[in-house]
Amino acid sequence: MAKEKPADQLSYEEAFEELESIVEQLQTADLALEKALSLFERGQALSARCNELLEEAQLKLRQLVPDETGGYVETDSADDGES
Fold this sequence. Notes:
By secondary structure, this protein is of the alpha+beta class. It has one domain. The protein has two helices and two strands, in the order ααββ. It has a two-stranded antiparallel sheet with strand order 1-2. The chain is 54% helix and 12% strand. The termini are far apart.
């Protein structure tokens, strides 16, 4: 088996796909405790990576727009044109 890439080098899709596989293995396989713990730890790293990438994507969708007082307010880019 090829050496797995560190979680922080995976795309969202790669990390999520591997995480799904790990969850399935943990749910269906009769694993030794050491193997189950290893899979669980990898799953935690993959989950953290997915969350990190989702948060980055969310930040890209947010922007500052002028408000009525001359200041700025943070808004979702999906709110454009609704004022």
